[in-house]
Amino acid sequence: MATMLKVFDRWKEFLGERVEQAERAGMTEETISQLAFQIGEFLSNKIDPENKEERVLKDLWDVCDEEERKVLARAMVKLAKAHH
Known about the structure:
Uncharacterised_YmfJ, DUF3243 domain-containing protein, DUF3243, single chain
């Protein structure tokens, strides 16, 4: 259990670092959210979740329509920023 939480924390840290780099590069919040959406699409289609947190995110992504996925992507960016 602790190992899975560490993996999820590392994922949040990784995303937070990417968001920070994007902000320093002058990307707008909308562009960052679009990138998060594209990352979510890729992960949902290509990656098998390795822990329950990733499974929850994939399950949420899979049941959402495109607009809801955009909201979820923005929420993931906020989560990453809050923990970075």
